[in-house]
Design brief:
The complex is a heterodimer of chains A (417) and B (131).
Chain A (H helix, E strand, L loop, with lengths): L10 H6 L7 E3 L2 E2 L1 E2 L10 H13 L10 H20 L8 E4 L2 H16 L5 E5 L8 H10 L2 E5 L9 H10 L2 E7 L11 H10 L3 E5 L11 H4 L3 E5 L10 E5 L1 H6 L10 E4 L4 E3 L13 H17 L1 H21 L3 E4 L10 E6 L4 H10 L2 E2 L1 E3 L4 H6 L5 E5 L6 H18 L2
Parallel strand pairs in A: 3-15, 5-6, 5-7, 7-8, 8-9
Antiparallel strand pairs in A: 1-2, 4-10, 9-10, 11-12, 13-14, 14-17, 16-17
Helix pairs in contact in A: 2-10, 3-10, 4-5, 11-14, 12-14
Chain B lengths: L6 H8 L12 E7 L4 E9 L5 E9 L2 H12 L6 H5 L3 H8 L5 H19 L11
Antiparallel strand pairs in B: 1-2, 2-3
Helix pairs in contact in B: 1-2, 2-5
Classes of the chains: A alpha/beta (417), B alpha+beta (131).
Chain lengths: 417, 131
């Protein structure tokens, strides 16, 4: 359909870099991939960088005095420096490799949380968190006897900042753990304000950046968060690697996480001495190819420009929200202003269960996610069991939005009473 | 899609049979599918020979789960508990007459799972009893 939205990207050129986007789901039905909040597709450069490691210089890192091990170590540690630069960390020592955002948050719970929280202390989270920023704190609360409280969200899908400040004033909060961008509503939280208030109240602040890091520029020093967690696979990189950023002074004080090789300086039978940062938190042979892949994914994103990625998604989301609003009986959860949210549209339809929506969309080649998206409390807040979520990235087109809308009309034809 | 949402299924989804709970009931059981929040509540009245005299149910969820409940529960009247025990996963799939992926299979089988749990306390998913 004709529209006035403009993108700064040459989307056809971007699409040509992603082999999977050429495929048909069934003969004659091209793929429309709108499940990017679950995981992103990978450009050829990322796939080839990982292949190249396995084909030419596969070796373990940090140990071997041989050519291949040196090359592997350089690539693996070079990736860490590239990641530090990408999120503007003060030092590569503040970049800890994990498996994913979930593991990053669990690491904080098991180390900093275990050492610093106890009965009477409160962890302040929100109603719009992914389960990975709720359950680790519930488990920690069970272990050490602290309590988890949740800041409510408004009907429009924003965090209730008045309630946040009030809870921070009234409760003995030791940790504030919030998402940077909701994986269902797309809401971008005012993390700078949240972190500043947390610090003023004497609390430590953790920000879940799983959804924000792939889509908007991130500057951890400007944000001033004590911990910031994200995953590679949602930002064009491989699965199996994620990052925990932590401020150096806090990381230095924290006990280690998993024990084993690489995280020690010296081991005696009676005691051990921990390695320096960041390796203190990285026991065992890590995900080497994956770190290299993540580095190349960051190269790709910065080549396009994070500002451009975001501007493209604002345009696509604005168009999608405008077209979805035309369809009777369709509601989108969360903020309606596309400049205030990520590229996500969680759709609820009268008479059609999200599973039925997703199934009919799949028949049209359109991949979306149906369910509670690991955010059950959020769906409970809106009194819906589930939603069908379309989520966009730099390679999605306005034409793909048109196909989504056509398919939603098919859902209505099929299922409306 | 024409296969998955064939007319018979859509008819049962739009006009479910035997909706409404019975009171009193000899069997009364409800359960959710945690993956997608589908919900089924089943009530059954038996006669003195353990034969189903009447059945009534309530539920919410996707077209497959609700049509499956409507189609299955309607056929229970006049069957004995022994006969009902023999109803299998394959019977349900045959009744629906469609191909289903692993996630949607649970939608289709929730009605039978609720029936077996209510009638016999069998809580495994139909077809996974041995696991």
């Amino acid at each position: 359909m004709k529209h006035d939205f403009e993108t700064p990207l040459d989307v056809a050129a971007v699409r040509a870099d992603f082999p999977v986007l050429e495929r048909e789901v069934r003969p004659g039905v091209p793929l429309v991939y709108l499940d990017n909040a679950a995981t992103s597709q990978k450009p050829l450069s990322v796939i080839e960088a990982m292949n190249d490691y396995y084909r030419r210089y596969n070796a373990n890192v940090h140990r071997g005095i041989h050519k291949l091990s040196e090359e592997a170590t350089d690539a693996y540690e070079g990736a860490r420096k590239r990641i530090a630069q990408f999120i503007n960390a003060a030092s590569y020592r503040e970049i800890i490799y994990t498996r994913n955002t979930t593991e990053s948050i669990n690491l904080v719970a098991w180390t900093w949380g275990q050492a610093n929280l106890g009965p009477g202390d409160v962890i302040l989270s929100t109603e719009m968190e992914h389960h990975s920023n709720i359950v680790p704190w519930q488990l920690l609360a069970r272990r050490v006897g602290c309590e988890v409280r949740y800041v409510p969200i408004t009907e429009g899908g924003e965090l209730d900042m008045e309630a946040f400040h009030q809870m921070l004033d009234e409760l003995p909060v030791k940790l504030v753990a919030v998402t940077h961008m909701s994986n269902v509503l797309g809401t971008i939280l005012p993390v700078r304000e949240i972190v500043e208030a947390a610090h003023a109240a004497g609390a430590v602040a953790l920000v879940d950046g799983a959804q924000s890091t792939p889509h908007i520029p991130v500057d951890v020093q400007e944000m001033d968060a004590d911990f910031f967690a994200f995953s590679s696979h949602k930002m064009l990189g491989p699965t199996g690697i994620g990052v925990l950023y932590g401020k150096r002074a806090i990381l230095e004080e924290m006990p280690p996480f998993l024990g084993g090789g690489d995280m020690i300086k010296r081991v005696e039978l009676g005691k051990s001495e921990w390695n320096d940062l960041p390796w203190k938190f990285e026991a065992g042979t890590p995900s080497i190819a994956e770190a290299i892949g993540l580095k190349v994914a960051i190269d790709y994103l910065e080549g396009v420009g994070m500002e451009n990625v975001h501007a493209h998604e604002v345009a696509i989301t604005a168009y999608a929200l405008e077209r979805l609003a035309e369809v009777p009986g369709v509601r989108v959860l969360g903020p309606s202003d596309p400049t205030r949210k990520g590229g996500v549209a969680a759709i609820v339809m009268d008479d059609a269960h999200p599973h039925d929506i997703a199934q009919i969309l799949d028949h049209e080649g359109i991949a979306v996610r149906a369910g509670h998206h690991c955010a059950m409390p959020l769906h409970q807040r809106y009194n819906v069991v589930a939603s069908a979520r379309a989520s966009f990235y730099l390679y999605n087109t306005f034409e793909e939005v048109d196909r989504l809308i056509e398919a939603i009309y098919k859902v209505k034809e099929t299922l409306t009473f | 899609m024409d296969d998955l949402y064939r007319e018979l299924i859509l008819d049962h989804y739009r006009n479910p049979r035997k909706k409404g709970l019975l009171s009193p009931a000899d069997i009364d059981y409800e359960e959710d599918n945690p993956v997608c929040g589908d919900h089924i509540h089943l009530t059954i009245q038996l006669d003195e020979n353990n034969v189903v005299r009447d059945v009534g149910w309530e539920g919410e969820g996707c077209a497959i789960s609700q049509a499956s409940a409507s189609m299955l529960y309607e056929t229970l009247i006049g069957k004995s508990l022994d006969e009902i025990r023999k109803i299998s996963k394959d019977d349900i799939l045959e009744m629906l007459g469609i191909e289903l992926g692993p996630v949607r299979l649970k939608c289709a089988l929730l009605s039978l799972k609720v029936l077996k749990a209510g009638a016999y306390g069998l809580t495994a998913w139909p077809g996974e009893e041995e696991d």
